[in-house]
Amino acid sequence: MPERTVVVTRPRAQADSLARAIASLGRRAVVLPLLDIAPLDDTSALQAALARLPSYALVAFVSPNAVDAVFAHLAAWPAGVPVAVVGEGSRLALARHGVTSDNTTIHCPPDPANSDSEHLLASLDLASMRGKRVLIVRGESGRELMADTFRAAGALVELVAAYRRSVPRLDPALAAQLAVLLAQPNDWIITSSEALRGLASLVRELDPVDGPARLREQHLIVPHTRIAETARALACNRITLTGSGDARLLAAIQSQE
Description:
The chain is an alpha/beta fold. It is 40% helix and 18% strand.
């Protein structure tokens, strides 16, 4: 049987470096972005929020894409403005733009194995946010848990979109690539529940009869419990839960050899 391919499904901007690291382990990696990330047509609301950054008691980024989208319009992070992130990828994205724990207070879940909004919120002193302004930077849509929790604690919450994300269209090239990847079991790195639901939709469109069963034969490597729950809801049971960070994803890949 041919060696299993490792399918990297992150958005293109975050996929290539992981694919190179996988190749350095001697495994074949294929980049198959399941979410397209695009800038907003109108960035006026984002730029207005960025102009008010010193007024916020906390700025929360929901993803590395949110970090990168902000710094497309920002030369440097203002001193004294704390940041919150849900995973190691966002922390690394901040570091690429010069924001580290050496110069900025960065809140994140204490256990990388549980990197999500729930564990971030549990680690914060929410009572101290009462009456203070909190900015949440995300895509055009997303979970409301973080905003609702801050509001329940009495914070003055603002949400701002920084980018647009969408599942790619099943054009002939993507259909051909998916068909090849589904023809045998492979290892799929899935870092977003939205991306996984998009994959399931694309597979059903590609092959309504046999596609879902072929997807269930694939081995999914996921960093978050919530993504694992999404996988199980789709009847995918070959799941490895790693915790946040590329090092853990790579260790899981090595363990499959």
